[in-house]
Amino acid sequence: MTQLNYHHLRYFHAIVREGSLTAAARRLHVSQSSVSVQLRQLEENLGCALFDRKHKGLHLTEEGKMVYEYADAIFRTGEEMLATLQKRGGRFSDVLRVGAVATLSRNFQLSFLKPVIDDERVEVVIASAGMAELLAQLQAHTLDLILSNRPARRDAGTSWQNHLVAEQPVSLIGSARFRKRRRFRFPEDLENAPMILPTLESGIRNHFDLLMQHQGLTPLVAAEADDMAMLRLLAREIDGIALLPPVVVQDELDRGDLFELYRIPGLHEDFYAITVHRRFPNPIVDRLLKK
What we know:
This protein has helices at residues 6-18, 21-28, 32-46, 62-86, 106-117, 131-139, 203-215, 228-237, 250-255, 283-290, and strands at 94-101, 122-129, 145-148, 160-174, 194-198, 220-225, 241-244, 259-276.
């Protein structure tokens, strides 16, 4: 094997980070053909394929994943060196790339990430997408972690690490009309009350339906949504009772627009930070998981 050409490695690193040859060429201000040539020369130099060309799109081979981890560590260290030498004061010199499941509560995301959002040394990049797309980005190391209200399914071929980072209680939330002088009676006061519920696929909904069945009641469903942000909007717009974690509508509760009527015992929503094993993990992730 000949001596490593770091110029070739920089092009490969950009391809993985940007997600395509075209985007990498745009980022590097060169032609796509130049990027393709540099990649081919790097593969010839290393003696292995870095991308699986049997499928559409860019999919790293096992060797490609290993090379990217090393390359990311090399260039991250180089950026830290330049920041130190240039004495830039450390503002936003580090980067944390977070993927968030599109249906996840924004309030939870901000609460979990607040320690690094408040840190002027860290630039936080947040991208929302479906779980499958986010896992693919995490596997390619273009994300440092994923935030989700469901763990990633693991099998012999994956190395996802599911970290339970929060358990939020689930409550019945309603407008002032449902906040009577006497204490809210559960489940009697739900009779004939319009309800805003998570969809049937939700673990919260499944638990609630079983609870209602045990009590001999059938909820009067006014609206359903699988997105916490949409549930929040529906809770504000529909004069009914919503089933959701109070953290989702914390601003509305603080303002007195909505009220927590009843906290359901034993029912909570779990929140996970999902990572993947890396030879050189981002130290900011470790800070968040240990907080």
